[in-house]
C-alpha cells in the first residue's frame, strides 16, 4: 500500500523539494500541498492522507494547530513536524500536541521521508532523530509529584527544621493531622525520612533553597 502524504509549508520551494524526495520512494505518494494552517486543515479533510508533514511556523498560525486538530479527530494519522528551531520547548510541545515525529529543517530530505515512514506505521510513538539522550529522559520521565498547598507549607516547615508539634502549632492543626501530611509528603517523594524527603524535594525544585535543618 502506498502511504499518502500531505505537505504543509508556506515556502513553495521547500514543498517542492520535499515532494521530489517523497516521489523517489515507491511507497510514498504526495497527494496534496498547502501553505497555511487553514489550507492544511481543509486539505486534510478533503484528501484523507495517511501522513501530514507540517512546518511549525505558518503565516496564519502555528503548525501545532494542525497537529492538534488532526489528532483530535484520529489517532491513525502520522504527524511530522518540521522547524528551524529544534529546542527542548518546541520538541516537547510537539510531543504534547500529538506529533509522531519532529525533524529540523537542517536535516536531509531523506530524514523527513524516514520520519514520515515511521509516522505512518507508529503514529503515536514519537521520533526525533536529533533528540539527545538527556532530552529523551526529560521528555519521557514521569511527571514530578504534586503536593497540595497545605503539604507545600508543611514541607517548607520541615525544611526549616521544625518538628511535628511545632508544625502543628504553626499551622493551627492537630499533631495527628500534621503527621498525616508528613506521611503523604514522604509517600509522594518516595522518602523514608525527613532527610530523604528534603533531598528529593530539592532535586525536584520543590524547595528554592536549602534551609538550616534540625531534628533529623
Give a description of the structure.
- The chain is an alpha/beta fold and 216 residues long.
- The protein has 2 domains: 3-139, Rossmann fold; 149-204, Winged helix-like DNA-binding domain superfamily/Winged helix DNA-binding domain (Arc Repressor Mutant, subunit A, Orthogonal Bundle), CATH 1.10.10.
- The chain is built from 10 helices and 8 strands.
- The protein has helices at residues 12-23, 37-47, 63-73, 88-97, 109-121, 133-140, 149-159, 164-170, 175-189, 194-203; strands spanning 3-8, 28-34, 51-55, 57-58, 61-62, 78-83, 101-104, 127-128.
- The strands form 2 sheets. A 6-stranded parallel beta sheet has the order 2-1-3-6-7-8, sandwiched between helices.
- Strand 7, helix 5 (109-121) and strand 8 (127-128) form a beta-alpha-beta unit.
- Helix 2 (37-47) packs parallel to helix 3.
- The chain is elongated.
- InterPro entries: CheY-like_superfamily (IPR011006), NreC/VraR/RcsB-like_REC (IPR058245), Sig_transdc_resp-reg_C-effctor (IPR016032), Sig_transdc_resp-reg_receiver (IPR001789), Tscrpt_reg_LuxR_C (IPR000792), WalR-like (IPR039420).
- This is DNA-binding NarL/FixJ family response regulator.
- The modification 4-aspartylphosphate is found at residue 55.
- Keywords: DNA-binding, Phosphoprotein.
- Residues 4-120 form the Response regulatory domain.
Amino acid at each position: 500500500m502506498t502511504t499518502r502524504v500531505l505537505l504543509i509549508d508556506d515556502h513553495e520551494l521547500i514543498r517542492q523539494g520535499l515532494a521530489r524526495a517523497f516521489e523517489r520512494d515507491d511507497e510514498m505518494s504526495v497527494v496534496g500541498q498547502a501553505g497555511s494552517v487553514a489550507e492544511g486543515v481543509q486539505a486534510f479533510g478533503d484528501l484523507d492522507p495517511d501522513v501530514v508533514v507540517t512546518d511549525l511556523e505558518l503565516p496564519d498560525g502555528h503548525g501545532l494547530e494542525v497537529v492538534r486538530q488532526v489528532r483530535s479527530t484520529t489517532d491513525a494519522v502520522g504527524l511530522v513536524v518540521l522547524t528551524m528551531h529544534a529546542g527542548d520547548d518546541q520538541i516537547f510541545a510537539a510531543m504534547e500536541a500529538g506529533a509522531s515525529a519532529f525533524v529540523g529543517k537542517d536535516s536531509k530530505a531523506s530524514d523527513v521521508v524516514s520520519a514520515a515512514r515511521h509516522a505512518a506505521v507508529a503514529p503515536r510513538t514519537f521520533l526525533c532523530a536529533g533528540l539527545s539522550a538527556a532530552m529523551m529522559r526529560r521528555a519521557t520521565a514521569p511527571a514530578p509529584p504534586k503536593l497540595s498547598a497545605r503539604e507545600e507549607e508543611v514541607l517548607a516547615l520541615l525544611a526549616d527544621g521544625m518538628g511535628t508539634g511545632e508544625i502543628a502549632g504553626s499551622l493551627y492543626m492537630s499533631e495527628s493531622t500534621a503527621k498525616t501530611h508528613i506521611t503523604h509528603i514522604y509517600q509522594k517523594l518516595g522518602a523514608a525520612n525527613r532527610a530523604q524527603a528534603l533531598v528529593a524535594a530539592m532535586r525536584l525544585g520543590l524547595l528554592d533553597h536549602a534551609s538550616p535543618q534540625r531534628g533529623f
